[in-house]
Automatic annotation (TrEMBL), chains A, B:
Name of the molecule in the record: Putative transcriptional regulator
InterPro entries named in the record: Homeodomain-like_sf, HTH-type_TetR-like_transc_reg, HTH_TetR
Sequence ranges assigned to domain HTH tetR-type in this UniProt record: 28-88
Taxonomic classification: Bacteria, Bacillati, Bacillota, Bacilli, Bacillales
A Pfam cross-reference name: TetR_N
Amino acid sequence: MTLVQEIDTLNVERLFYLKGEVDHMSRSTKKDILLQVAERLFYEHGFRGVGLKQIISEANVATMTLYNHFSSKDNLVEEVLIQREERYWSYLDSHVEMDSDSPFILAVEAHGRWLKEQSYKGDMFLRAIEDYAGTDNEIENIARGHKSKLLQYFQLLAQRKGKDNERDLANQFTLLLEGTTSMTTLIGAEKATEYSIAMARTLVQHTS
Amino acid sequence: MTLVQEIDTLNVERLFYLKGEVDHMSRSTKKDILLQVAERLFYEHGFRGVGLKQIISEANVATMTLYNHFSSKDNLVEEVLIQREERYWSYLDSHVEMDSDSPFILAVEAHGRWLKEQSYKGDMFLRAIEDYAGTDNEIENIARGHKSKLLQYFQLLAQRKGKDNERDLANQFTLLLEGTTSMTTLIGAEKATEYSIAMARTLVQHTS
DNA sequence: TAAGAATTAGAAAGGTCGTTCTATATATTC
DNA sequence: GAATATATAGAACGACCTTTCTAATTCTTA
């Protein structure tokens, strides 16, 4: 059982909410295309900066096809976030060898690769929190859920490695990842990751 | 001469661009109110999430008063960013004692106080870069200018303190500040700053 | 007090937005 | 092959957007 799977068993309700009753096998292809196109456009221009017209146009789909799969634009945003989160965790999971000497460093490296391939410009979840905060929206919940799972991830990792200050270490590494993501917008994923790995090594060595 | 002033002399064109020909003494009160209201609303709901109608309504001014002072919404965004940047730098300048033993720590602390008072939720400049990227807009230039000035700031600080790896240190501290800002959205400025200061101390001590 | 500048409320123009509707066409399934 | 589900194009809706216009009013200042 991977670390992410373990966290999921701790948060059963949230997981159920995330996966819903969706049968992944019988998923419509059109829906997948819509999710993919929407994610790209939302990420590039922001949720509010992209209209449904552009999405259906680039997805080569009729208006009603979108509304057949998603009850509203907000619902589309929600599903985009859920899909992106799943991809992020499977990415982290597949790159972090828990029994390694330094799983923390591996996590930072994996996050760096994710940035290089999927997040060259800012963080979609943070953006969702900011854009939809205070509007009593499910979107914010989903995005915040992802972030608290990140904290849990590092906390559990610290626990596994017998660190006594799990909570502090988890927060520091989450801060490090968030900083790397922001820096990617400024100096690119390559350099940002280089610096964060250097910092991570220093932290692991010199934190009680 | 403070460190920020010194950086400004290095970037004369940009400074001139920022300050323009504006005579701060004869500035209209209405304009100030508009800038203040717009900054608050833009920060809370995003540039695209706030309409001019809401801004003029909360500022208690007429539509034409806004257009008398700003040529467009984009121009309003620009001036809001410029004003916010000025406030940020005077904030940092007034809190960082350059001759201190650890000006780096002071800078992190000052940034933390800025977050607590002015940026409880994300970074306005990063957001501007993301929202307006690729649209050939002055807004992105202003926001990116602010970020590169931040890098310069730490680079100059490192240089002053006789560190040999100025560039690396500057990038690492900028990453740290950006991470703190992001974490503020998740766990609040208080705790985020606490963690970043701890990390900063570790870094200063154990980086060549 | 007279003249010029700034501000006012509100309407109007011209767009785009999210969403719904209609009517036709294409797939899928029994 | 009939029945059911899914997709199509595109018009229509009302709401909201930024920007412009008008004409009356208030403020500033010489």
